[in-house]
Each structure stands twice: as C-alpha cells, then as structure tokens.
Specification:
Elements (H helix, E strand, L loop, with lengths): L8 E12 L5 H5 L2 E11 L12 H14 L5 H13 L6 E7 L1 H7 L5 E6 L2
Antiparallel strand pairs: 1-2, 2-3, 3-4
Helix pairs in contact: 2-3
C-alpha cells in the first residue's frame, strides 16, 4: 500500500435472512427454507463519501437475490455464489461469507450448520 492509498477496511454485516431452495434432498429444493448469511467485505474507500465505498443496502440486496434466485445441492456451492455476488459490488476487494442453514441444524439437534468461504482466495 502506498502512502496515497487509503487502508483497506472491513464492512461486517451479520444475520441476513433469506428463503432459498438449496439442499441434497429434493424436498429441500421444493419448499423454500431459511438461510442466514454473515459476511465481511474488504473495501478501500478513497474518500468520505458513499460513492467511494460499498453501500450496505446493495450488499444485502445482492446476498438476498443470490439465496432466493439460485438452487444448489451443496451449501458450499451456495456460499461461493454469495461470496462472488458480494465481491461484484464495487469497490469490494474481497468477501468472506458464512452461510448458515438453521433447518439442518435443528433437524440434527446441533447448534449450527454453516459453510464459510473467502472470494477471491
């Protein structure tokens, strides 16, 4: 990083809830279930204006649209798709995403089932 370049900062958003049709069982893809996304997005804001950073509302919208409009067998595939969608929001440099599947956790009697991915690596 040069002295003229601002440091990268991390935007954290937790608890983005969206219905989705993801899972190995066909029934999981037939009936939408809740998914919860936590994320961190690295940005380098060039100034103190919204135009020079990633708008939280846009990030949340991209996450919800990805969960709601896609269908994957694996939670891992969904996590990658969400991370890529966050990364595509300008000027996100990197995205770390955790996708939680509360219904799977409840069905197994555990506290949480989730997958985490960082894009790009």
């Amino acid at each position: 990083m040069s002295e003229d370049q601002p440091p990268a900062t991390i935007i954290t958003i937790q608890g983005i809830r969206a219905p989705g049709r993801h899972g190995v069982d066909e029934a999981e893809r037939d009936l939408a279930q809740e998914f919860v996304v936590d994320l961190q997005a690295w940005v380098r804001a060039a100034s103190d204006t919204l135009d020079d950073t990633a708008d939280y509302r846009t990030i949340v919208q991209h996450v919800k649209e990805t969960v709601e409009s896609t269908s994957f067998l694996l939670l891992e595939s969904l996590a990658v798709a969400v991370a890529k969608a966050v990364w595509e929001v300008e000027p996100v440099l990197r995205a770390n995403v955790v996708v939680h599947k509360p219904g799977a956790a409840r069905s197994m009697g555990v506290a949480d089932v989730s997958v985490e991915v960082t894009y790009p690596e």
